[in-house]
Fold this protein.
Amino acid sequence: MPTFDDDAHKFFVDAPFWSAGVSFSPNKAWMTLTDGVPVGLLESAASIGSTFDSPLIPNVILFTAECVLLVPKSGNPTFSESDVRTKFDFGFVQGILERDIHIDFWGRQKNHGRMILHISMPNAFEVDTEEAIKPFTRVRASRFSVTRINPFDNKFHRFKIVSKFGDHPMLQVNHTVGNKGQANDQPPIKNFIRSITSSRSFRTIFCFKDRSTNKFDSISSTEWSVVYDHTVSYLEKSDGSLERTVSGPNGKLGVPSGGSPSNISRQDNNLLRMAEVGSPLESPSVLSSRLADASRRTITVESVNNDFDPSFFRSA
């Protein structure tokens, strides 16, 4: 088991573009964390929910963690950077807790009805990753750097380890649905997203893996969350196009200021055990299948919306 210089741990967090909101592309509503995200590209993006290192999507939260690895010179007279890479894998393992998603769709008028969609999610932590890099958040080639330091130390080979990671978690749903109400023999009436409520919690763990045993151990960690409680109103222009106004929390709610070894919790250690066994994992394909799974969906259809607010949908 490697040892570390207890005074050399560092964990930096920055959230330069964080602004929780809802963006619209031709067919989807995107729960994003930055203004001006290229929604036209998102419409055809293959990666939904997990956007690690995507060239199309700006990272909104950035992590940099450092530690100093100590390898005793006694018994190891020579030990190089390549030896570190051969024996260990450093990087971030991220846990995600997906909570239920609740969406209201309203018609243009009170008698155009309302549809309420509730999507049940696991409500328990899983490892947030992608198939090609599981259980980490980056490919191994860019997962960490190794630099020898203080070569004149008589007791230890010392190596500075640096890992970086950026993320922009998102969710997407259809922004318009057809409501037939009680008159199922009639053409459906368009209902538009009125509100979205959901939250997601994350634990980002700087850790290492002993490559000979596949055992993971934590070095430092931090936690953060994303909250959506947004309301949408519409202005229909003379050409039929829609102007949308979204209100809701857009501050840096839930963004951590940093992490440390003292932040490591039982949940972090549980997540590393999940990483070891490879389950449960949430990959983009897993998230997409959950969002589309009919058994997770509870849909309430109303032919009359008794909560209708005239300011919801206006004409220019």
